[in-house]
Amino acid sequence: MTGLQNLDLKQIAYSAIFPWDGWNRDWTIVALSALFSIAFIPVIWIYLFASRIAFWLVTVFSVLQVINVPFMIASLLAMGEGLMLRYFLEPALTAGALFCLWLPLSRAWLRQDGGVDAAEFE
């Protein structure tokens, strides 16, 4: 969402990371959509199929994103950008999702391969 809110800045960042003459707003939106889709696939595998591999992939990448927050703050300050709440929304949601993923009920659901008895919620 942050990338879509400031497409020009994201386009400049992608141009610096991936040297290609064709970067424009359309390709930036396509790249952001592809990244979202790639990140969303393990979440679907966890939810629909109780995949343990997807669980660990999401855990590892979520922890890495949360660990990256101090470096993000340092780079924003070095660029002269102010620290806005929207920059911290994604890491905060990631930390919350990671917490929910590791709740005992979630772990029990994964051990049962997604099959949950209705009595468990009473």
Principal-axes geometry comes out as: globular
Largest sheet at a glance?
Answer: none
- From the alpha carbons, calculate the radius of gyration and give it in angstroms: 18 Å
Indicate the percent of residues in helices: over 70%
Mean pLDDT: 78
Question: Which secondary-structure class do the elements indicate?
Answer: mainly alpha
- The number of helical elements comes to 7
- The tally of strands reads 0
End-to-end gap = 37 Å
Strand proportion, as a percent range, falls in under 5%
Output the helix-strand order: HHHHHHH
Protein model, in words:
The structure is a single chain. This protein has 122 residues and is mainly α. The chain has helices at 2-5, 7-17, 25-49, 52-67, 69-79, 85-101, 104-111. The longest helix is centred in the N-terminal third of the chain and has 25 residues, at 25-49.
Keywords for this entry:
single chain; 122 residues; mainly alpha
Give the gist of this structure.
Helix content is 75%, strand content 0%.
Give the arrangement of secondary structure elements:
Elements lengths: L1 H4 L1 H11 L7 H25 L2 H16 L1 H11 L5 H17 L2 H8 L11
Helix pairs in contact: 2-3, 3-4, 4-6
